User: Fold Bile acid/Na+ symporter from Saccharibacter floricola DSM 15669.
Amino acid sequence: MFFFQGAKLQRHAIVESLQDWRLQGATLIMSFGVFPLIGLGLFALCHVIFPNGLLKPDLWTGVLFLCCLPSTVQSSIALTSIARGNVPASICAATVSNILGILFTPLLAGLLLHRSDSGSGLGTIIDVSRELLLPFIIGQLVQRWVGPIVKKHKVLLSFTDRGSIIVMVYAAFSAAVLQGLWHRIPLIQLGEVAVLDSLLLAIILGLTAALGRLMGQTIENDISLQFCGSKKSLATGVPMASVIFPSGAGIVVLPLMLFHQIQLFVCTVLARHYAQRPNS
Assistant:
């Protein structure tokens, strides 16, 4: 999946979009700075309101891990396109977020979680880079030859992308079943995770919209910032969790899976709202 992402992403789109450093920088700050701080804030607030803890420790680990992840690629670009936003900027922002996430996510997870089994340090970064970054770089190197094939068969390759995600999610949930996940997590806990995920998304959507207005950007750039800065990648998060949390990836990715569905629904509604604005 990451190999084909590298093979089809045009270098000139990256170069052109990187020139808008304010937009790209704001997106990265939201993904890897503001989002983790919101997660920590909700964690502290919930422990004040609920002294016994609102969620099980492993679920809180999943929520905080979610906050450390990079943005999505495909859905951010697709939603920006639907909303008539700056698509090249979203391509660049989402891709750079995923590449830097290979470095930032393990480091942030180690800082936020303070767990000896969360796998921080150079070894984890190397493991994650081997699984995610190396295929992307190889795809970029062979883009001249493979790129036309990827473009010609993009519909077929979209099925391989989705299929890869399904296999990764299935593997994570299989491990969770073997660990007795569904016997350990009551239905009310799933509802509480969904509420926390919804609150996270609502806060970050509001902050990205406010930041866009504060920066005085065009509406197209505001849309790009809002979608790329507020979304978290299931496709990147599941393989990262399997490396960072080898003994408990199933329960850790549960908040991410719920967040993924919530963000798709909410951001699709938001994109359609933006699409209905009059032409400038």
